TrEMBL record:
InterPro entries: PcRGLX/YetA-like, PcRGLX/YetA_2nd, PcRGLX/YetA_3rd, PcRGLX_1st, TAT_signal. Residues 490-899 form the PcRGLX/YetA-like C-terminal alpha/alpha toroid domain. This is Tat pathway signal sequence domain protein. Residues 1-34 form the signal peptide. Keywords: Signal. PANTHER family: CONCANAVALIN A-LIKE LECTIN/GLUCANASE (PTHR40081), TAT PATHWAY SIGNAL SEQUENCE DOMAIN PROTEIN (PTHR40081:SF1). Residues 132-484 form the PcRGLX/YetA-like central beta-sandwich domain. It comes from the Bacteria. Residues 45-122 form the PcRGLX/YetA-like N-terminal RIFT barrel domain. It holds the Pfam family PcRGLX_3rd.
Length: 902
């Protein structure tokens, strides 16, 4: 390929739109401006439910994107059902295009009988008949949905002091409970001492106040440790509250062990013992349906009508109508006040009960996957609670205590006290790796980058989602089943694929699934195989657990026929080479619910457990390893906002928004830690005016955070914009642009120091952690030809010949790998430069690179020699899967009409 001079590049960018030069390519020739262009009318968006129409009243919060320049920043919207009837909705802005037009809007609907879809249009929203209201008092905040009312103290220990349904008090004293253990028992040692503490509230902030949706954020600690953020989300007309609980682990793992972590409420019990009910939903809609005092199965029969009423959970007839041989002996029928359901593993739960404290437990039953839903109350009302991902996040537990008294107690244990203490200790003693040379030798054998003191969980986090109900009566079996379904899979409204593609969000690097060409159909089959294989592996290999749920493994062991769960850096993936993006782009182009839920779980995990939120490494993530926090490489490439922002914009989820905001100042982490400290050949001391920052995995992570803060108009939006544009400008001014490899960054100016010499320093990893995607976005947003030329140079040359690299940059890039993953860079350059030759080469790179070949078996085989039977595909690795998936998706979107096999 003839070297392309920068002048030719810039001329190409200003030329005729590429879509007219290469038919079918989705990009225009460069970043468009709203100026001088007619603003198109706001398009109608036809929304559907992710898993299909819910079977019961449902709420949903979601985000919808809009084309650049099409929708005014202050646009209001309305929602209509299939028959055109207005649906109450709340709207708020999530992000803006640089020209001030709306890029993403957030929306929420209140519970109602759901339609199978809705139409979102410009207009004025209809208010709910009874809006949710928020009343602020000096000592508390009160939220009223029109059905239930919650009082939220501004201090003290209670998240919710009182929860009413109408004028009836349902529950009170809602607190967080933690159990702290002073040591981990070893083998047959005596049990360790445990101390219990409750929440301490530091602040209460109303984030939204209706009319459809209200959000209250509560911050504090679990006593004197474990900082938390709880969000209470209310909807107009709802009888439930969504509770999002996030805690940060603020210990180093060597002491103060979590032995229990839960949410606890006291529940008013007003009815006779035989009119009080306990419900647990187990597998599917399987149900434990019992009364505190059962009158079925007795030696004497109270009567069929009486028995039927108790089974149904309705009020029993007056005892005077019963067979008096029962009513005169009611005092001899046990009252079962305590129930406990434990889910200590992914495939096993157990339920037991007892009459009261101090007396023996009776086994009730066991099963596989409990739903995480429990109810206690009576015919005049009760309290239900559900924990999402209950069995997937084991060990979890549901407790009901003293249901036979005037006030029961319900505890949802996020970490079960019966599971033993949460063991966060590092898994080996260092094996003598006390110097950098020794640590590099360790890296060369186990692929683990070890360093003393770095394998700490201090600062990682976890978020759990609960739903609380204040109910007017004991729910029917069908109602409980529907509630359990919504706990397992909260209803989610989504945008049509065509609209997501048309708005060109997330870089415009995806197009709808297309099987119209036989070669495309083969690639689609391969993409389906890879996702389905990993989905099954999660279940077959039991990739579940409190800290593990959402992650996948890195590399397979062909000899043991298991994933290398215990081999250094080959174990948990921790976002290595962007499986997060593969999954999200796969969803964006398909709308598949199973892909969405897989990606959602990964985003919840990788944004919390793989990233530090406190301490000197706050804002950095941890490289792949045996434990999610074990590896000593703490880097931007794992914490990068590009892995979280898709989920945030699709759901308007506030917690994910917090994660994005945390990263805005993460450039300061380079003062605390040099990412390449072990391999530097020259002396280097971090200097705030001359920080060595890589132009690949480092800069792309920073750029993603700055872009997101800028477009969200966050509190540091101006600073973020300045740093993004400043670094883009100074990268574009470097003689070799991104090929330079790194630059000296000034924290105060937000710019790289000038570079005069042509330097070549290229890594196969640089662009593989979201840089492709973030560069596509910023180039589409910002008219900066020099920066685009620098990126296109990198895209053109990475997979080019050594001679071509030398001719343009002064030296060859070296023996690079991941050529298949970089095929999408070639495709991007093909579109921006209207190059047929590059389009052809993009497919050659894809088919002949060092990734998955078309000649592979593209199937798995059954393995029965492992601990449990599983499917295995020895040729599959997560690095290659993620890069194949992204290269396939983006090549098909960019140069799909030029597809050619090699």
């Amino acid at each position: 390929m003839e070297p392309i001079a920068r002048r030719r590049v810039l001329a190409g960018l200003a030329a005729t739109p590429l879509s007219s030069l290469i038919p079918g390519l989705p990009f225009t020739s460069g970043p468009a401006s709203a100026a001088g262009r007619a603003v198109a009318p706001t398009p109608d968006v036809h929304l559907t439910w992710l898993e299909g129409q819910p079977g019961a009243a449902a709420t949903s919060t979601w985000g919808t994107p809009w084309p650049k320049g099409a929708v005014p920043g202050d646009q209001t919207f309305q929602l209509a059902g299939p028959d055109g009837s207005a649906v109450p909705m709340q709207t708020w802005p999530l992000a803006y295009w640089p020209d001030g037009t709306l890029k993403w809007s957030g929306h929420a609907i209140a519970p109602s009988s759901p339609a199978d879809g809705y139409t979102l249009t410009a207009g004025t929203s209809t208010a709910p008949a009874v809006p949710v209201s928020v009343t602020k008092h000096p000592k508390y905040v009160e939220v009223d949905t029109g059905v239930i009312k919650a009082r939220i103290p501004r201090g003290g220990r209670e998240l919710i002091s009182h929860l009413w349904r109408g004028d009836v008090l349902t529950a009170r004293q809602g607190v967080l409970v933690s159990l702290r253990q002073d040591r981990i028992e070893e083998d047959e040692e005596r049990p360790a001492r445990r101390d219990r503490s409750e929440s301490t509230i530091r602040s209460v902030v109303v984030e939204q106040s209706g009319p459809v949706r209200a959000v209250v954020r509560i911050e504090g600690k679990h006593g004197s440790w474990l900082p938390f953020t709880v969000r209470l989300v209310f909807f107009a007309g709802a009888e439930s509250i969504r509770l999002m609980h996030t805690f940060i682990y603020d210990r180093d793992g060597s002491k103060d062990y979590i032995a229990g972590l839960g949410v606890r409420f006291k529940v008013a019990m007003r009815d006779a013992a035989y009119d009080r009910h306990v419900r647990f939903v187990g597998d599917g809609h399987g149900l434990l349906s019992e009364a505190v005092q059962g009158i079925t199965g007795l030696r004497r029969d109270p009567g069929a009508v009486v028995r039927a009423a108790q089974i149904a959970g309705t009020k029993l007839p007056d005892p005077s109508t019963w067979d008096q041989r029962v009513t005169t002996r009611l005092q001899y029928i046990p009252q079962w006040g305590d129930y406990t359901l434990t889910q200590l593993s992914a495939n096993g739960f157990a339920l037991r009960k007892r009459t009261k404290q101090g007396y023996g437990w009776i086994s009730v039953d066991q099963g596989n996957h409990a739903s995480g839903l429990a109810y206690v109350g009576g015919v005049t009302g009760g309290f239900a609670v559900g924990l999402k991902d209950f069995w997937q996040r084991h060990p979890a537990q549901l407790d009901i205590r003293r249901a036979h008294t005037e006030e029961a107690e319900v505890t949802v244990w996020l970490w079960s006290p019966e599971a033993g203490a949460m063991d966060m200790r590092f898994y080996h003693d260092g094996m003598g790796q006390d110097t950098y040379p020794k640590q590099l030798e360790g890296l060369n054998i186990t692929y683990e980058d070890y360093e003393p003191g770095f394998g700490t969980p201090y600062g990682i986090a976890r978020t759990n989602e609960l739903t609380l109900w204040a109910l007017a009566a004991t729910p029917t079996a069908d109602r409980l089943g529907a509630m359990a379904d919504q706990v397992r899979t909260p209803p989610q409204l989504i945008n049509p694929v065509g609209h997501l593609v048309a708005t060109r969000v997330f870089g415009g690097l995806f197009a709808p699934v297309d099987r119209s060409h036989p070669d495309k159909a083969v690639i689609e089959d391969h993409l389906d195989f890879l996702f389905d294989f990993y989905r099954k592996q999660v279940d077959q290999r039991h990739w579940y657990g409190f800290w593990d749920h959402g992650d996948i493994m890195h590399t397979f062991d062909e000899d043991r026929l298991v994933w290398r769960y215990d081999v250094g850096g080959y174990a948990w993936d921790n976002s290595e080479l962007s499986p997060d993006l593969w999954l999200w782009y796969a969803f964006l182009r398909s709308g598949r619910a199973d892909i969405y839920r897989f990606a959602e779980a990964m985003t919840r995990h990788t944004g919390e457990a793989d990233v530090y939120h406190l301490g000197k490494w706050a804002g950095l993530g941890t490289r792949h390893g045996v434990q999610h926090w074990a590896d000593s490489a703490k880097q931007q490439r794992i914490s990068t906002a590009v892995y979280r922002r898709i989920y945030y914009y699709l759901t308007a989820d506030e917690r994910t928004g917090d994660l994005l905001s945390e990263l805005v100042d993460s450039d300061t982490t380079f003062l605390a830690l040099d990412p390449i400290r072990k391999i530097r050949t020259e002396p280097y001391t971090p200097d705030r005016h001359a920080l060595s920052i890589g132009l690949g995995t480092d800069w792309s992570g920073l750029a993603a955070a700055w872009l997101t803060e800028w477009e969200r108009k966050g509190p540091k939006a101006d600073l973020a914009k300045s740093k993004l544009l400043g670094t883009m400008e100074t990268i574009g001014a470097m003689p070799n642009g991104f090929v330079t490899g790194s630059g000296l960054y000034d924290l105060d100016t937000g710019r790289f120091a000038p570079v005069t010499a042509k330097t070549v320093s290229v890594s196969h990893l640089s662009a593989m952690f979201g840089q492709v995607e973030i560069c596509a976005e910023v180039i589409d947003l910002v008219d900066m030809p020099a920066f685009e030329a620098a990126w296109l140079q990198y895209c053109r040359l990475f997979n080019a010949t050594a001679a071509e690299q030398t001719a343009e940059c002064g030296a060859a890039f070296g023996n690079l790998i991941l050529r298949q993953g970089h095929a999408r860079l070639t495709a991007y350059a093909a579109v921006r430069l209207a190059s047929e030759a590059l389009a052809t080469r993009a497919w050659r790179d894809f088919y002949t690179g060092d990734g998955y070949a078309a000649t592979l078996p593209w199937k798995s085989e059954r393995v029965t020699s492992t601990l449990t039977p599983t499917d295995a595909a020895k040729w599959v690795s997560t690095n290659t899967t993620a890069l194949y998936g992204l290269a396939a998706i983006q090549n098909l979107a960019l140069v799909g009409d030029k597809i050619k096999t090699f």
